[in-house]
Write a structure and sequence with these properties.
There is one protein chain. The C terminus is likely disordered. 33% of the residues are buried. 76% of the residues lie in helices and 2% in strands.
Length: 491
């Protein structure tokens, strides 16, 4: 059983939510790690002070204590301001997610309205096509247009073949310099001009190369493609005329049934849907920007964290700390020296956490990139009307699988889009897009007029969006037409 367009879109949305949840979890891990790093620095400062008091009596502990205490207090105040900023960002993210969820719900309602109208349109067209199948005048015109199209196609084929033959057979004549000399001078024709001596010499040359016989053959060789091309153009014009008459009958039938009004309602509904998609895209961009802002906090690259670390680092650079460092390095039995052991443990943990933080930052950036890739896929999906009521997807297990692989990082968004496009199908719901003139147009790859599309309508891509061409879409300038779909025409 095929997936509907809405079901496929819901599956993409579900994957998007999973990616956003993963980002939230990474943010939480980054927050914990960044907090751990700053706490570690503060703890190192406290241990250094204790070591100085216990082991290094020659140090003026009062001065060092003041420096470390002031740095710790400054860092504490800076981090307090940071917490408030984080809370503000979290509120913005929460509000944007709420707005986005409400916008998606509103879009679902608009899509239902558009799909109801699209269903109404399909049912109208189905009824009209059934009626035209019983209309003698229409059937007669269809036969005339179909026959004219076949004649035009055959004439064009003959003309192109003759031109190809001429290109091959022309070469020996072109390579014969004496023949081409006489040909260009129009020798043996009323247009030939020359003096007595020139005429005598040209006549002598013509006898040498049997010019007259070759001239006739070469003229025929040149003339046949021209005549066939002119004939092809005449019959093509006739085919266009018959085609236009056929479409006129179809258009009148659609008009009598009130289809243009239904189409207008559908266009209006889709305009509202497009406007809603624009709003969703704006919200997504704002949410992504805010997520990236939060990532600066959670990964410790924000202004507050950097200031607090700098503050603690400056205190740790106090001249007496170097004496403590030397003492720590020279201590041979850390087993009985709890403070030294504790300081070393803090220092080792700090280095390990720095490596973990770098890994988490890379993972977070990669996840943000995946989020944007999948959002791009969803935009293309909507722009191509893949969620139209006539749209469906085969091989749903493969689509589920590729979305799962996307979450695992095994495939890119372009791979997801390629699988979606390859498995997308349109259900005609009774109304054939290649009915009547649509079938004739589908057989003619050389049609150059504005009437090359089907009179009957299929979902059209959104203006300027996506790269997928919908087969034979309709009569309105707001729609994009396109080939690629043909069932052989007829009824």
């Amino acid at each position: 059983m095929m997936w509907s367009g809405s079901t496929a879109l819901n599956s993409i949305d579900s994957t998007l939510r999973t990616v956003r949840d993963d980002i939230d979890r990474l943010d939480q891990s980054l927050t914990r790690l960044t907090q751990s790093l700053t706490d570690n620095l503060r703890q190192q400062g406290k241990v250094l002070h204790e070591i100085a008091k216990v082991r290094l009596v020659e140090i003026d502990t009062g001065q060092l204590q003041d420096a470390l205490t002031a740095a710790d207090l400054d860092a504490k105040n800076i981090l307090s301001d940071r917490v408030q900023s984080i809370q503000q960002v979290e509120h913005e993210i929460k509000d944007l997610k709420q707005e986005l969820e409400e916008a998606e719900i509103a879009r679902e309602k608009l899509l239902l309205i558009a799909n109801d109208i699209s269903t109404d349109l399909a049912e109208n067209e189905t009824g009209i096509q059934e009626a035209l199948k019983e209309d003698a005048a229409y059937l007669t015109q269809f036969e005339r247009a179909s026959k004219a199209e076949s004649i035009a196609a055959e004439a064009l084929q003959k003309s192109q073949t003759a031109q190809s033959d001429m290109d091959i057979k022309d070469e020996p004549y072109q390579n014969d310099k004496l023949f081409m000399y006489l040909w260009r001078r129009k020798f043996a024709t009323p247009d030939y001009v020359g003096g007595v001596l020139t005429r005598a010499l040209d006549k002598w040359v013509s006898g040498l190369i049997k010019y007259e016989k070759n001239r006739v053959n070469y003229w025929n060789l040149q003339e046949i493609p021209k005549r066939l091309a002119a004939h092809a153009q005449r019959v093509q014009t006739e085919a266009e005329r018959e085609f236009v008459l056929l479409q006129a009958i179809e258009t009148q039938a659609l008009s009598d049934a009130g289809v243009p009004e239904v189409e207008q309602r559908l266009d209006d509904a889709r305009l509202q849907l497009d406007a809603q998609d624009d709003q969703i895209e704006i919200l997504e961009n704002r949410l992504n920007t805010t997520l990236e802002k939060r990532a600066e906090f959670t990964s410790g690259t924000d202004e507050y964290t950097q200031r607090s670390i700098q503050c603690l680092s400056d205190a740790m650079a106090h001249k007496d700390v170097y004496q403590i460092d030397r003492y720590v390095r020279d201590t041979l039995s850390p087993v009985d020296d709890e403070l030294v052991r504790e300081l070393r443990q803090f220092q080792d943990n700090y280095e390990d956490n720095e490596d973990d933080l770098a890994d988490l930052r890379r993972a977070h950036s990669a996840k943000i990139a995946k989020l944007k890739e999948l959002e791009s896929v969803r935009h293309s999906f909507k722009n191509n009307r893949f969620d139209d009521v006539r749209s469906g997807f085969g091989n749903e297990d493969l689509i589920k699988s590729v979305l799962g692989q996307f979450l695992q990082g095994a495939v890119a968004g372009s791979d997801v889009w390629r699988v979606l496009k390859r498995n997308q199908r349109y259900d005609n719901r009774g109304a054939q897009p290649d009915f009547g003139s649509g079938g004739i147009s589908g057989r003619s790859s050389n049609r150059r007029t504005s009437n090359r599309n089907s009179t009957f309508r299929w979902p059209s891509t959104r203006g300027g969006g996506g790269g997928f061409r919908i087969p034979g879409s309709g009569r309105s300038s707001k729609r994009s037409g396109g080939g690629g779909f043909s069932t052989g025409g007829g009824f």
